[in-house]
Protein backbone atom coordinates (compact mmCIF):
# COMPACT_ATOMS: atom_id res chain seq x y z
CA UNK A 1 0.00 0.00 0.00
CA UNK A 2 2.94 2.32 0.67
CA UNK A 3 4.28 1.62 -2.82
CA UNK A 4 0.83 2.39 -4.27
CA UNK A 5 0.82 5.76 -2.48
CA UNK A 6 4.33 6.75 -3.56
CA UNK A 7 4.08 5.67 -7.18
CA UNK A 8 0.64 7.27 -7.39
CA UNK A 9 2.26 10.60 -6.54
CA UNK A 10 5.04 10.03 -9.08
CA UNK A 11 2.51 9.08 -11.75
CA UNK A 12 0.25 12.07 -11.14
CA UNK A 13 2.88 14.82 -11.08
CA UNK A 14 3.58 15.07 -14.86
CA UNK A 15 -0.11 15.04 -15.77
CA UNK A 16 -0.92 17.89 -13.40
CA UNK A 17 2.05 19.86 -14.67
CA UNK A 18 0.36 19.72 -18.07
CA UNK A 19 -3.19 20.28 -16.81
CA UNK A 20 -2.66 22.98 -14.17
CA UNK A 21 0.81 24.51 -13.96
CA UNK A 22 1.33 24.77 -17.71
CA UNK A 23 -2.17 26.18 -18.33
CA UNK A 24 -1.70 28.73 -15.52
CA UNK A 25 1.69 29.67 -17.00
CA UNK A 26 0.22 30.13 -20.47
CA UNK A 27 -2.83 32.08 -19.27
CA UNK A 28 -0.84 34.40 -17.00
CA UNK A 29 1.49 35.15 -19.93
CA UNK A 30 -1.45 36.21 -22.12
CA UNK A 31 -2.15 33.06 -24.15
CA UNK A 32 -5.82 32.92 -25.18
CA UNK A 33 -8.23 30.16 -24.15
CA UNK A 34 -8.51 28.63 -27.63
CA UNK A 35 -4.77 28.01 -27.79
CA UNK A 36 -4.73 26.64 -24.25
CA UNK A 37 -7.61 24.31 -25.11
CA UNK A 38 -5.74 23.04 -28.16
CA UNK A 39 -2.82 22.11 -25.91
CA UNK A 40 -5.00 19.16 -24.83
CA UNK A 41 -4.19 17.59 -28.21
CA UNK A 42 -0.55 17.37 -27.16
CA UNK A 43 -1.63 14.77 -24.61
CA UNK A 44 -2.36 12.26 -27.38
CA UNK A 45 0.28 9.84 -25.97
CA UNK A 46 -2.06 9.13 -23.04
CA UNK A 47 -4.63 8.01 -25.60
CA UNK A 48 -2.32 5.93 -27.79
CA UNK A 49 -0.03 4.43 -25.17
CA UNK A 50 -1.41 0.95 -25.90
CA UNK A 51 0.56 1.08 -29.17
CA UNK A 52 3.92 0.77 -27.42
CA UNK A 53 2.76 -1.02 -24.26
CA UNK A 54 3.43 -4.46 -25.89
CA UNK A 55 7.06 -3.38 -26.30
CA UNK A 56 7.25 -2.64 -22.56
CA UNK A 57 5.48 -5.95 -21.84
CA UNK A 58 7.91 -7.91 -24.01
CA UNK A 59 11.29 -6.31 -23.28
CA UNK A 60 13.10 -5.45 -20.07
CA UNK A 61 15.87 -2.90 -19.55
CA UNK A 62 19.12 -4.38 -18.21
CA UNK A 63 18.58 -3.07 -14.69
CA UNK A 64 16.04 -3.20 -11.84
CA UNK A 65 13.75 -5.77 -13.41
CA UNK A 66 10.95 -5.95 -15.97
CA UNK A 67 8.87 -3.01 -14.66
CA UNK A 68 11.15 -0.89 -12.48
CA UNK A 69 13.74 -0.31 -15.23
CA UNK A 70 11.14 1.39 -17.44
CA UNK A 71 9.79 3.35 -14.48
CA UNK A 72 13.26 4.65 -13.56
CA UNK A 73 14.31 5.86 -17.00
CA UNK A 74 10.94 7.57 -17.48
CA UNK A 75 11.22 9.34 -14.13
CA UNK A 76 14.72 10.69 -14.82
CA UNK A 77 13.74 12.11 -18.22
CA UNK A 78 10.54 13.60 -16.77
CA UNK A 79 12.56 15.56 -14.21
CA UNK A 80 14.63 17.08 -17.02
CA UNK A 81 11.66 17.99 -19.24
CA UNK A 82 9.56 19.58 -16.49
CA UNK A 83 12.51 21.79 -15.53
CA UNK A 84 13.02 22.88 -19.16
CA UNK A 85 9.42 24.11 -19.63
CA UNK A 86 9.99 27.28 -17.61
CA UNK A 87 12.93 28.46 -19.70
CA UNK A 88 10.78 29.48 -22.69
CA UNK A 89 8.25 32.32 -23.00
CA UNK A 90 4.84 31.55 -24.58
CA UNK A 91 4.78 34.77 -26.61
CA UNK A 92 7.87 33.84 -28.63
CA UNK A 93 8.44 30.11 -28.03
CA UNK A 94 4.95 28.59 -28.00
CA UNK A 95 6.00 25.93 -30.52
CA UNK A 96 8.96 24.86 -28.38
CA UNK A 97 6.75 24.67 -25.29
CA UNK A 98 4.27 22.54 -27.26
CA UNK A 99 7.05 20.15 -28.33
CA UNK A 100 8.33 19.79 -24.76
CA UNK A 101 4.76 19.22 -23.54
CA UNK A 102 4.30 16.48 -26.14
CA UNK A 103 7.54 14.76 -25.09
CA UNK A 104 6.51 15.13 -21.45
CA UNK A 105 3.16 13.47 -22.19
CA UNK A 106 4.88 10.58 -24.00
CA UNK A 107 7.27 9.88 -21.12
CA UNK A 108 4.48 10.28 -18.56
CA UNK A 109 2.30 7.79 -20.46
CA UNK A 110 5.24 5.37 -20.64
CA UNK A 111 5.78 5.68 -16.90
CA UNK A 112 2.06 5.01 -16.37
CA UNK A 113 2.22 1.81 -18.47
CA UNK A 114 5.00 0.40 -16.31
CA UNK A 115 3.56 1.59 -12.99
CA UNK A 116 0.04 0.31 -13.78
CA UNK A 117 1.40 -3.12 -14.67
CA UNK A 118 3.70 -3.15 -11.63
CA UNK A 119 0.81 -2.23 -9.32
CA UNK A 120 -1.58 -4.82 -10.78
CA UNK A 121 1.02 -7.55 -10.40
CA UNK A 122 1.80 -6.41 -6.85
CA UNK A 123 -1.81 -6.42 -5.55
CA UNK A 124 -3.91 -9.50 -4.87
CA UNK A 125 -7.49 -9.39 -6.19
CA UNK A 126 -8.98 -8.57 -2.79
CA UNK A 127 -6.51 -5.67 -2.44
CA UNK A 128 -7.48 -3.98 -5.71
CA UNK A 129 -10.12 -1.65 -4.24
CA UNK A 130 -8.00 -0.27 -1.42
CA UNK A 131 -4.71 -0.30 -3.34
CA UNK A 132 -6.13 1.52 -6.35
CA UNK A 133 -8.01 3.96 -4.12
CA UNK A 134 -4.76 4.91 -2.38
CA UNK A 135 -2.96 5.11 -5.74
CA UNK A 136 -5.60 7.33 -7.32
CA UNK A 137 -5.80 9.69 -4.39
CA UNK A 138 -2.02 9.98 -4.16
CA UNK A 139 -2.20 10.69 -7.89
CA UNK A 140 -4.59 13.56 -7.17
CA UNK A 141 -2.62 14.80 -4.16
CA UNK A 142 0.35 15.13 -6.53
CA UNK A 143 -1.65 17.82 -8.31
CA UNK A 144 -1.31 20.03 -5.26
CA UNK A 145 2.35 20.64 -6.09
CA UNK A 146 2.03 21.99 -9.68
CA UNK A 147 -1.52 23.24 -9.05
CA UNK A 148 -1.02 24.67 -5.57
CA UNK A 149 2.44 25.14 -4.12
CA UNK A 150 4.01 25.99 -7.48
CA UNK A 151 1.34 28.63 -8.16
CA UNK A 152 2.06 30.24 -4.81
CA UNK A 153 5.79 30.28 -5.59
CA UNK A 154 5.03 31.88 -8.97
CA UNK A 155 3.89 34.98 -7.07
CA UNK A 156 7.41 35.51 -5.74
CA UNK A 157 9.84 33.70 -8.05
CA UNK A 158 10.46 33.40 -11.79
CA UNK A 159 8.73 30.73 -13.83
CA UNK A 160 12.13 29.11 -14.43
CA UNK A 161 12.61 28.61 -10.69
CA UNK A 162 9.03 27.35 -10.28
CA UNK A 163 9.39 24.67 -12.96
CA UNK A 164 12.78 23.54 -11.61
CA UNK A 165 11.30 23.22 -8.11
CA UNK A 166 8.35 21.25 -9.50
CA UNK A 167 10.70 18.92 -11.37
CA UNK A 168 12.69 18.19 -8.21
CA UNK A 169 9.50 17.00 -6.50
CA UNK A 170 9.70 13.95 -8.81
CA UNK A 171 13.03 12.88 -7.29
CA UNK A 172 11.62 10.96 -4.24
CA UNK A 173 9.85 8.63 -6.65
CA UNK A 174 13.22 7.67 -8.12
CA UNK A 175 14.42 6.44 -4.73
CA UNK A 176 11.24 4.42 -4.18
CA UNK A 177 11.77 2.75 -7.55
CA UNK A 178 15.20 1.61 -6.33
CA UNK A 179 13.90 0.37 -2.97
CA UNK A 180 10.80 -1.55 -4.11
CA UNK A 181 10.76 -5.16 -5.30
CA UNK A 182 8.91 -6.96 -8.09
CA UNK A 183 6.96 -10.17 -8.02
CA UNK A 184 8.08 -12.79 -10.52
CA UNK A 185 6.07 -12.43 -13.74
CA UNK A 186 3.31 -14.99 -14.26
CA UNK A 187 3.90 -15.10 -18.01
CA UNK A 188 6.26 -13.10 -20.20
CA UNK A 189 5.45 -12.92 -23.94
CA UNK A 190 8.16 -14.74 -25.87
CA UNK A 191 7.87 -12.56 -28.99
CA UNK A 192 6.78 -9.02 -29.78
CA UNK A 193 4.03 -10.44 -32.00
CA UNK A 194 2.66 -12.42 -29.07
CA UNK A 195 2.82 -9.31 -26.88
CA UNK A 196 0.68 -7.43 -29.44
CA UNK A 197 -1.90 -10.04 -30.43
CA UNK A 198 -2.42 -12.29 -27.40
CA UNK A 199 -3.74 -9.59 -25.00
CA UNK A 200 -6.49 -8.61 -27.48
CA UNK A 201 -7.38 -12.21 -28.24
CA UNK A 202 -7.54 -13.15 -24.54
CA UNK A 203 -9.69 -10.12 -23.62
CA UNK A 204 -12.24 -10.74 -26.40
CA UNK A 205 -12.40 -14.47 -25.69
CA UNK A 206 -12.84 -13.99 -21.94
CA UNK A 207 -15.51 -11.26 -22.16
CA UNK A 208 -17.18 -12.00 -25.49
CA UNK A 209 -17.27 -9.45 -28.31
CA UNK A 210 -20.56 -7.77 -27.35
CA UNK A 211 -19.72 -7.37 -23.67
CA UNK A 212 -16.16 -6.26 -24.56
CA UNK A 213 -17.60 -3.47 -26.73
CA UNK A 214 -19.91 -2.40 -23.87
CA UNK A 215 -16.95 -2.28 -21.47
CA UNK A 216 -14.95 -0.19 -23.95
CA UNK A 217 -17.86 2.25 -24.39
CA UNK A 218 -18.25 2.51 -20.60
CA UNK A 219 -14.54 3.25 -20.15
CA UNK A 220 -14.86 6.10 -22.66
CA UNK A 221 -18.02 7.70 -21.25
CA UNK A 222 -17.78 7.24 -17.46
CA UNK A 223 -15.34 10.12 -16.86
CA UNK A 224 -16.23 12.21 -19.92
CA UNK A 225 -18.31 14.95 -18.27
CA UNK A 226 -16.04 15.28 -15.23
CA UNK A 227 -12.91 15.37 -17.40
CA UNK A 228 -14.25 18.14 -19.63
CA UNK A 229 -15.52 20.16 -16.64
CA UNK A 230 -12.05 20.28 -15.06
CA UNK A 231 -10.03 20.67 -18.28
CA UNK A 232 -9.86 24.46 -17.91
CA UNK A 233 -10.32 24.63 -14.14
CA UNK A 234 -7.37 26.93 -13.44
CA UNK A 235 -8.20 29.40 -16.26
CA UNK A 236 -11.82 29.31 -14.97
CA UNK A 237 -10.70 30.32 -11.48
CA UNK A 238 -8.54 33.09 -12.95
CA UNK A 239 -11.46 34.38 -15.05
CA UNK A 240 -13.66 34.46 -11.94
CA UNK A 241 -11.21 36.99 -10.52
CA UNK A 242 -9.17 34.91 -8.07
CA UNK A 243 -5.42 35.55 -8.03
CA UNK A 244 -2.80 32.78 -8.11
CA UNK A 245 -2.23 33.04 -4.36
CA UNK A 246 -5.91 32.34 -3.63
CA UNK A 247 -6.02 29.46 -6.09
CA UNK A 248 -2.79 27.98 -4.73
CA UNK A 249 -3.58 28.33 -1.02
CA UNK A 250 -7.37 27.97 -0.68
CA UNK A 251 -8.45 25.88 -3.65
CA UNK A 252 -5.65 23.35 -3.50
CA UNK A 253 -5.57 23.00 0.29
CA UNK A 254 -9.31 22.34 0.41
CA UNK A 255 -8.77 19.86 -2.41
CA UNK A 256 -6.02 18.12 -0.45
CA UNK A 257 -8.15 17.32 2.60
CA UNK A 258 -11.12 16.35 0.46
CA UNK A 259 -8.89 14.00 -1.50
CA UNK A 260 -7.47 12.42 1.67
CA UNK A 261 -10.99 11.86 3.05
CA UNK A 262 -12.11 10.54 -0.32
CA UNK A 263 -9.22 8.09 -0.46
CA UNK A 264 -9.92 6.63 2.96
CA UNK A 265 -13.69 6.56 2.46
CA UNK A 266 -13.48 5.13 -1.06
CA UNK A 267 -11.08 2.35 -0.09
CA UNK A 268 -13.16 1.30 2.90
CA UNK A 269 -16.43 1.45 0.95
CA UNK A 270 -15.08 -0.69 -1.89
CA UNK A 271 -13.90 -3.31 0.60
CA UNK A 272 -17.47 -3.41 1.94
CA UNK A 273 -19.77 -2.88 -1.06
CA UNK A 274 -17.57 -3.93 -3.96
CA UNK A 275 -16.37 -2.08 -7.04
CA UNK A 276 -19.66 -2.34 -8.96
CA UNK A 277 -21.85 -0.59 -6.41
CA UNK A 278 -19.10 1.97 -5.85
CA UNK A 279 -19.22 2.85 -9.57
CA UNK A 280 -22.91 3.75 -9.18
CA UNK A 281 -22.54 5.71 -5.96
CA UNK A 282 -19.41 7.62 -6.95
CA UNK A 283 -20.69 8.23 -10.49
CA UNK A 284 -23.66 10.18 -9.15
CA UNK A 285 -21.24 12.12 -6.96
CA UNK A 286 -19.25 13.17 -10.03
CA UNK A 287 -22.36 14.48 -11.74
CA UNK A 288 -23.35 16.58 -8.72
CA UNK A 289 -19.90 18.19 -8.49
CA UNK A 290 -20.09 19.23 -12.14
CA UNK A 291 -23.39 20.98 -11.43
CA UNK A 292 -21.72 22.81 -8.54
CA UNK A 293 -19.27 24.30 -11.04
CA UNK A 294 -22.29 25.77 -12.87
CA UNK A 295 -23.48 27.32 -9.60
CA UNK A 296 -20.03 28.87 -9.07
CA UNK A 297 -20.03 30.26 -12.62
CA UNK A 298 -23.51 31.76 -12.11
CA UNK A 299 -22.37 33.50 -8.92
CA UNK A 300 -19.30 34.84 -10.70
CA UNK A 301 -21.18 36.70 -13.43
CA UNK A 302 -21.44 39.95 -11.46
CA UNK A 303 -18.70 39.71 -8.84
CA UNK A 304 -16.06 37.40 -7.44
CA UNK A 305 -17.88 34.53 -5.65
CA UNK A 306 -17.38 34.34 -1.86
CA UNK A 307 -14.48 32.22 -0.72
CA UNK A 308 -16.77 29.85 1.22
CA UNK A 309 -18.59 28.92 -2.02
CA UNK A 310 -15.31 28.60 -3.88
CA UNK A 311 -13.97 26.28 -1.17
CA UNK A 312 -17.18 24.23 -1.10
CA UNK A 313 -17.13 23.61 -4.85
CA UNK A 314 -13.44 22.71 -4.93
CA UNK A 315 -13.82 20.39 -1.94
CA UNK A 316 -16.83 18.63 -3.45
CA UNK A 317 -15.09 18.23 -6.80
CA UNK A 318 -11.99 16.71 -5.21
CA UNK A 319 -14.11 14.34 -3.12
CA UNK A 320 -16.58 13.32 -5.85
CA UNK A 321 -14.16 13.01 -8.75
CA UNK A 322 -11.56 11.30 -6.57
CA UNK A 323 -14.04 8.65 -5.41
CA UNK A 324 -15.25 8.11 -8.98
CA UNK A 325 -11.72 7.71 -10.29
CA UNK A 326 -10.79 5.26 -7.51
CA UNK A 327 -13.70 2.96 -8.39
CA UNK A 328 -13.06 3.42 -12.11
CA UNK A 329 -9.38 2.45 -11.94
CA UNK A 330 -10.22 -0.51 -9.69
CA UNK A 331 -12.76 -1.65 -12.29
CA UNK A 332 -10.15 -1.40 -15.07
CA UNK A 333 -7.70 -3.43 -12.96
CA UNK A 334 -10.31 -6.13 -12.44
CA UNK A 335 -10.75 -6.48 -16.21
CA UNK A 336 -7.09 -7.34 -16.91
CA UNK A 337 -5.36 -10.70 -17.06
CA UNK A 338 -2.08 -10.83 -15.12
CA UNK A 339 -0.34 -12.46 -18.09
CA UNK A 340 -0.90 -9.35 -20.23
CA UNK A 341 -1.15 -6.65 -17.58
CA UNK A 342 0.70 -3.78 -19.26
CA UNK A 343 -1.00 -4.04 -22.65
CA UNK A 344 -4.58 -4.63 -21.46
CA UNK A 345 -4.29 -1.97 -18.75
CA UNK A 346 -2.81 0.48 -21.25
CA UNK A 347 -5.58 -0.26 -23.76
CA UNK A 348 -8.38 0.47 -21.29
CA UNK A 349 -6.72 3.51 -19.72
CA UNK A 350 -5.96 4.85 -23.21
CA UNK A 351 -9.67 4.70 -23.98
CA UNK A 352 -10.40 6.55 -20.74
CA UNK A 353 -7.90 9.25 -21.81
CA UNK A 354 -9.65 9.86 -25.15
CA UNK A 355 -12.09 12.42 -23.67
CA UNK A 356 -9.24 14.25 -21.94
CA UNK A 357 -7.29 14.47 -25.20
CA UNK A 358 -9.81 15.09 -27.97
CA UNK A 359 -13.00 16.26 -26.22
CA UNK A 360 -11.05 18.54 -23.89
CA UNK A 361 -9.46 20.18 -26.92
CA UNK A 362 -12.89 21.62 -27.74
CA UNK A 363 -13.47 23.09 -24.28
CA UNK A 364 -11.90 26.46 -25.07
CA UNK A 365 -14.17 26.88 -28.09
CA UNK A 366 -17.22 25.69 -26.12
CA UNK A 367 -16.57 28.21 -23.32
CA UNK A 368 -16.07 31.02 -25.84
CA UNK A 369 -19.46 30.25 -27.43
CA UNK A 370 -21.55 29.03 -24.47
CA UNK A 371 -20.06 30.85 -21.49
CA UNK A 372 -18.85 29.09 -18.36
CA UNK A 373 -22.27 28.33 -16.84
CA UNK A 374 -23.81 26.69 -19.92
CA UNK A 375 -20.56 24.83 -20.53
CA UNK A 376 -20.80 23.14 -17.13
CA UNK A 377 -24.46 22.24 -17.74
CA UNK A 378 -23.33 20.52 -20.95
CA UNK A 379 -20.65 18.63 -19.01
CA UNK A 380 -23.28 17.40 -16.53
CA UNK A 381 -25.41 16.05 -19.41
CA UNK A 382 -22.35 14.23 -20.77
CA UNK A 383 -22.11 12.30 -17.47
CA UNK A 384 -25.37 10.49 -18.25
CA UNK A 385 -24.24 7.97 -20.96
CA UNK A 386 -21.64 6.43 -18.65
CA UNK A 387 -24.20 6.03 -15.88
CA UNK A 388 -26.66 4.33 -18.26
CA UNK A 389 -23.99 1.83 -19.35
CA UNK A 390 -23.66 0.73 -15.72
CA UNK A 391 -26.92 -1.21 -16.16
CA UNK A 392 -24.91 -3.58 -18.40
CA UNK A 393 -21.43 -3.26 -16.89
CA UNK A 394 -22.31 -3.43 -13.20
CA UNK A 395 -26.01 -4.31 -12.66
CA UNK A 396 -27.07 -3.46 -9.13
CA UNK A 397 -27.26 -6.52 -6.90
CA UNK A 398 -25.19 -8.69 -9.26
CA UNK A 399 -21.69 -7.17 -9.26
CA UNK A 400 -19.45 -6.94 -6.22
CA UNK A 401 -15.85 -7.14 -7.48
Account of the protein in words:
The chain is mainly alpha-helical and about 400 residues long. About 80% of the residues lie in helices and about 0% in strands. The chain has 20 helices and no strands. It has helices at about 1-30, 35-40, 45-50, 55-60, 70-85, 90-120, 130-140, 145-155, 160-170, 170-180, 190-205, 210-220, 225-230, 235-240, 245-300, 305-335, 340-360, 365-370, 370-380, 385-395. Helix 1 crosses helix 8. The two termini are about 20 Å apart.
Span from first to last CA? 19 Å
Q: Helix coverage percent of residues?
A: over 70%
Count of DSSP strands: 0
> What sort of overall outline do the alpha carbons produce when their principal axes are compared?
globular
Tally of helical runs: 20
The helix-and-strand class reads mainly alpha
Low-confidence stretches: none
CA gyration radius, whole angstroms: 20 Å
Q: Major beta sheet, specifics?
A: none
Supply the key terms.
mainly alpha, 401 residues
Compact overview of the structure:
This protein has helices spanning 2-28, 33-38, 44-48, 53-58, 68-85, 90-122, 128-141, 145-154, 159-168, 171-179, 192-207, 209-221, 224-230, 233-240, 244-299, 307-334, 341-359, 363-370, 372-381, 384-393. By secondary structure, it is mainly α.
Amino acid sequence: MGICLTLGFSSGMPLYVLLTLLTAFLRSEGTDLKQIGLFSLLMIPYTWKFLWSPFIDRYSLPFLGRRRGWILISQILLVVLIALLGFFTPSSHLGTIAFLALALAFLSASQDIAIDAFRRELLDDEELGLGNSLFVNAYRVAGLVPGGLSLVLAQYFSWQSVFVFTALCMVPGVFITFLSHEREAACVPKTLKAAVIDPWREFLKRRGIVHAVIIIAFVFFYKLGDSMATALATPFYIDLGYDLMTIGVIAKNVGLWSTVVGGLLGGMLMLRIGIGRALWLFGFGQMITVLLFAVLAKNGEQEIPPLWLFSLVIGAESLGAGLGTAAFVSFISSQTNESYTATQFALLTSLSALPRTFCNATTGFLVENLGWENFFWLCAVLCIPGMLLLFKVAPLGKYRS
